[in-house]
Amino acid sequence: MSIKTLLLAVGAVVGVPAVLIAYVRLGEGLIGKIKGKKQLNVRPWLWLFPAFILLIVFLIYPVVNTFILSFKNASSSSFVGLKNYIFIFTNHDMLIALKNNLLWLVFVTLLTITLGLLIAVLTDRIKYEAVAKAFIFLPMAISAVAAGVIWKFMYEFKPKGTEQIGTVNAFFTAVVPNFEPKAWLFNPPINTYALMIVYIWMWTGFCMVILSAGLKGIPNSLLEAARIDGANEWKIFWKIIIPTMSSTIIVVATTMVINVLKVFDIVYVMTNGTLGTEVIANRMYKEMFNFHDFGKASAIAVVLLLAIIPVMLVNIKRFGQRRG
Amino acid sequence: MNTAGAKHNILVKIVSRGPLNLIILLICAAWLIPSFGLFVSSFRPAHLILSTGWWKAFKSPFAFTLENYSKVLSTANMGRSFINSLLISIPATVMPILIAAFAAYAFAWMHFPGRDFLFLLVVGLLVVPIQMTLIPVLMLFNKLHLTGTFLGIWIAHTGYGLPFAVYLLRNFIGELPEEMFESAHLDGASHYTVFFKLVLPTSVPALSSLAIFQFMWVWNDLLVALIFLGGNPSVAPMPLTISNLVNSYGGGWEYLTSAAFISMLLPIVIFFSLQKYFVRGILAGSVKG
Fold first, then answer.
1. Do B80 and B27 lie in a common domain?
2. What distance separates the 2 farthest-apart alpha carbons in chain A?
3. Of A19, A67, A114, A149, which to mutate for an interface test with B (greatest number of B Cβ within 10 Å)?
4. Which residues of B touch A153 (CB under 8 A)?
5. DSSP symbols for A41-62
6. Looking at the structure, do residues B112 and B244 belong to the same domain, yes or no?
7. Which of B1, B120, B136 has its CB closest to that of A316?
8. Contact A167 B37 (CB under 8 A)
9. How many folded domains does chain B comprise?
10. CB neighbourhood size of A319 (10 A)
C-alpha cells in the first residue's frame, strides 16, 4: 500500500468531516450577517446543499440520463426508438431472465416471510430466544459473495459411488435409499431454486427480526383474553396475530420485493446466469460490460425501476398517512 | 408474552415443549451448518477437502492446518484486499453520515418551502435500483478519471448511502424534544452550536446504528466495486477478489473457503458485539412510512 493511499484515507476520514464542519461554521457565520427574515430563507439550503449535490450527481441525474440512454443505440450516439425495449421482451435470454425474476419474486418473498414469521412465533415461546434468533440472523452479516462460496461448497457434486464432499448430496445419499447425487447448480430447472435457497438463507433473518418486533408489539391482554375465551394457539395465530401484524407484514413484503427484483451478486458468483439461471440485474451487467451495449443495459435498468415503482408508491402513500 | 399465557395450561406446555424445542434446534442447525462446514473446511489440507466430507474432520486422522490461510493471503491477493476493504469502508461510512446529519437537521427543525416534497423525494430515492444509475455515473467517472480509484468509490458509496442515512436520521432527530431546541435558542445558541453540542450527541444511538449498517453494506458490496473499481486488483476489496477466485479456481476449495472466511471475520465480530445496534438500524429503516 502506498503512502499516498494511506494519506488519502486519513484525509477522507479526518479531512472530509473537518471541511464539512468548517463549511457549516463559515456558512452560519455569513448567514448570521443577513438581517431579518431572509436569514431564515437561506439557512436550510446551507445545511441541505452537500447532501443534495450528491443526490443529484449519483441518483437524480443518472435516473433521468439512463432513461434517455435506453432509447439510444449501444454507443449512445443515435436514437433507436423502442428497439431496446422490444429486445427485452422478445430476446430468448431476456425472457428467461424475466421469467426467473418472477419466480424469484414469488418464491423468495413468500418463503422468507413465512419462515421469518414462523421462526419469530416459535422463538417467542422459548427461553433461549435471543441465541436462536442470532443464528438465523447471522447470514445477514455475510456478503452475498461469501454466501455464494458457502453454498457452492454445500452443493458440490461428485458422481455416484464416490464420496460426496458437498453437504447436500451427502445428506440425501445418507437419508434417501438409491439417491442419485445431483449437480444442483448445473441442472435446470433445479439450479434456479438452488440459488433461491441461498437468498432465503440470507434474508429470512431480516424478515424474522422485523416480524418479531411486530409480534412483541401485540398487547398481551389481547392474547390473554382470547385464551380465556377458549381460542387455541392455531386460531389465535390466524385471527389475532396475522391481522394485527398485517401492516408489518406489508412493510417486510415491499422491502423483500424490492430486494429480490434487484438480485445480482448470488447469481453472478454462483452461476453467472448460465444454464437457465439468468436474472435481470445480471443480464444488465453483461450488456454493460461484456457486450458494451449501453442502450440495452439502460433499458433493462428502466424495466427494473418500472417494476419497483408500484411498490415505491405504496411506501410513499403509507408514509403520507403516518405524517397526516 | 405467550409463555406467560401458557402458564395457565401446564399440560399443554409439557406436551408442546418437546416438539417446539426440536423444531427450533433443527432450524438453527440448518442455518448454521453451511457456515460451519466452510469454517471447518478452511482448516483442512487441500487433498482432504477434496476427498472427504468436512464432517469427517472430527474423526481420526485429525488433520488441521493454517496453510490455506497463509496461501490465500500471500498468493491470492487476499491480504491486500483486506486492507483495501478497510480503506474503502471506513471513509465510505464516515462521509455520508455527517452529510446526512446536516440534511436531516434541516428537514426536521427548519421551515422552508418544498420541505415535504424534497423529503418525499429522498424517500422515493430509497428504492431506486442502483442499476438505474450505473451507466451515467460510470461515464462521468471515466471523464473525471475516477474509475479504479478509492476516491471515486468513496463518493459513490456516499451518494448511494445518503437516502437511507437522511431518512433514518431525519426520523430520529425529528423525535427529539422540542423544548430542548427552544431553550437552546433562547439562550442564544446558534444553529451550529445546537447541531454539534445538542443534536449530534443526543443522536448517538441512531448514528451508531447507521454507521454499522453503512459499514456492513460497503464491506459486503460487490456491485459498486465491480463497476467502479473494475479490473484493478490493487484497489479491489474482498468480495471482488473472492468472486474472481471463484472464476479462476472453480474447485480450489482450500483457497475459496479460507478467503470467504477471512471476509466474514470482521462482519461476524461486529455482528455479535453490536447486534443491538444492527437490529435497531434494520427496524428503523424497514418501518418505512
1. no
2. 87
3. A149
4. 34, 37-38, 41, 253, 256-257
5. HHHHHHHHHHHHHHHIIIIIHH
6. yes
7. B120
8. yes
9. 2
10. 17
Task: Please report where in the chains the cell 493511499 appears, as a residue.
Answer: A5
For residue B184, give Cα distances in angstroms to A22, A322, B104, B198, B206.
22, 29, 19, 9, 22
So what's the pLDDT on residue A324?
A: 39
Comparing CA positions, the residue from B160, B99, B97, B164 lying closest to residue B134 is B160
Whether residue B245 sits in one domain with residue B233: yes
Distances (CA, A) of B162 to A57, A58, B34, B80, B90: 12, 10, 34, 28, 15
CATH assignment of the domain containing B173: 1.10.3720.10
Structural domain boundaries enclosing B270: 70-286
Domain end among B68, B85, B110:
B68
Which helix or strand (DSSP H or E) is residue B99 part of?
helix B78-109
- In this structure, the answer to whether residues B205 and B236 fall within a common structural domain is yes
Statement to judge: residues B23 and B144 lie in one domain: no
- The helix (H) or strand (E) run that includes residue A88 is helix A83-90
Identity of the amino acid at A109: T
Rounded-to-10 torsion of CA B131, B165, B279, B242: 40
Which of residues B68, B94, B111 is at a domain's end?
B68
- Does residue B207 have a pLDDT over 60? yes
The neighbour count for residue B201, using CB atoms within 10 Å, is 9
Phi, psi of A285 (to 5 degrees): -60, -40
Question: Is domain A83-323 given the CATH code 1.10.3720.10 in the classification?
Answer: yes
The pTM is what?
Answer: 0.90
Most B CBs within 10 A among A47, A49, A135, A204, hence the mutation to make, goes to A47
Residue in chain B closest to A253 (alpha carbons) equals: B286
| Backbone φ/ψ region at B11: left (φ over 0), alpha (ψ -120 to 50), beta | alpha
Nearest CB partner across the interface for B271, out of A141, A224, A300: A141
Largest CA distance in chain B: 76
Shortest Cα–Cα distance, A302 to chain B (Å): 7
ipTM of the complex: 0.89
pLDDT band at A204 (very low <50, low <70, confident <90, very high): very high
A61 CB-near residues (< 8 Å, 6+ apart): B136
DSSP state of A163: P
Model confidence at A22: pLDDT above 80:
yes
Closest chain B C-alpha to A205 CA, distance in angstroms? 10
Task: Identify whether residues B61 and B91 lie together within a single domain.
Answer: no
Of B124, B156, B223, the CB nearest to A316: B124
Question: Residue A289, by phi and psi: left (phi above 0), alpha (psi -120 to 50) or beta?
Answer: alpha
> Residues B232-242: pLDDT tens digits?
888 999 999 99
Does residue A113 sit at the B interface (CB-CB below 8 Å)? no
Residue of A nearest to B270 (CA): A141
